[in-house]
Amino acid sequence: MEDVEKVKPYISHLNKQLNSLKVDLDKLTSKSLDEQLLSLNDERAKLELTNTYAYALSSLMFSYMKVLNVKDLSPIKAELDRVKSYMNKAKAIDGKDQKEQRLQQEEQERAKRVINNALDGRQTGPAISKHNFQGKHTRFEDSTEDQDKQKIDVKEISQKVAESKRKKSRIEKQKVNKKRTK
């Protein structure tokens, strides 16, 4: 008796699940598959319907065979795997469509930013006005100290360059002399 009490909650849960399955199956089987396919205009909806039918039938067959304690379920498992692969391919197609839509949306946003940046985005008045034709001028003050310092720096740099060239030529002559003596 104790074993029966342990199993009763599982049986009641199974009955609830079967009742919800019955409602879903009634929706699928209210019309024939051909009638349902003819009533749909969208190819994606037709694909979804055929995948749902195939998966439901294969799953029910698998469950029925399990209840009958059939040992070899490999053909049904293979069919379930095939249907799952079709469903995954359909999801991949949807993912590509969503990705393309997202890319188009990002491209439109980029184009808006480029246009706004090109127009400076802050123009509230007319495009041709006195304000747009006024230039910005920056005045630099000349200081004689800076010019003198720059002249000295240029002289120092040119002296260092000349000195390094002389050293380089001496080193090259020494290398040539060493090669001749060998």
TrEMBL record:
Segments forming a coiled coil: 11-50
Subcellular location: Nucleus
Positions of the UniProt region annotated as Disordered: 91-110, 118-182
Biased composition (Basic residues): 165-182
Biased composition (Basic and acidic residues): 138-164
InterPro entries with a match to the protein in the record: Exosome-assoc_fac/DNA_repair (IPR011082), Sas10/Utp3/C1D (IPR007146)
GO biological process terms on file: maturation of 5.8S rRNA; regulation of gene expression
One CC-aspect GO term: exosome (RNase complex)
Entry's Gene Ontology molecular function annotations: DNA binding; RNA binding
Main location: nucleus
Keywords of this entry: Coiled coil, Nucleus, RNA-binding, rRNA processing
Cited Pfam families: Sas10_Utp3
Domain of life according to the entry: Eukaryota
Its biological purpose: Required for exosome-dependent processing of pre-rRNA and small nucleolar RNA (snRNA) precursors. Involved in processing of 35S pre-rRNA at the A0, A1 and A2 sites.
Family in the record: Belongs to the C1D family.
Name of this protein: Exosome complex protein
Organism whose genome encodes this protein: Torulaspora globosa
